[in-house]
Amino acid sequence: xxxxxxxxxxxxxxxxxxxxxxxxxxxxxxxxxxxxxxxxxxxxxxxxxxxxxxxxxxxxxxxxxxxxxxxxxxxxxxxxxxxxxxxxxxxxxxxxxxxxxxxxxxxxxxxxxxxxxxxxxxxxxxxxxxxxxxxxxxxxxxxxxxxxxxxxxxxxxxxxxxxxxx
Length: 166
Prior knowledge:
It contains 7 helices and 2 strands; from the N terminus they run αααααββαα. It has 166 residues and is mostly helical. Helix content is 67%, strand content 6%. Strand 1 (84-88) and strand 2 (96-100) form a beta hairpin.
């Protein structure tokens, strides 16, 4: 009897449902784009670096929502693969500007159609009338996280460190 109650609670828990939605998204990503050799996080970093050429790692942290140490590890791995380059900026010798290499641009292009297909498949699960609302709702949650990080960056605790992308 208690098991049934627990399942009903999970079915009404937005945090649990968001976690399951992320799991489904990653499952679709790996099915569509996994053959490119890029993990979802690597794709995210390459896309952000491409759209914001020459931005600092700190700015990429803010754009992607990937914590600083994980992003630094991802950048190092992507550099080792020849997909990114990092250079000190002229304005501040302590700041690294991140750019895609030609190989990185090629890898990103190969993965983009699969990633776009994932977005289509995710939205296809929802009725047409709910799609815009879903995107707006998720954007609101992401914007709220941005506000939290801006206001109290040292208090944003990531208790579970994500597995490292390779």
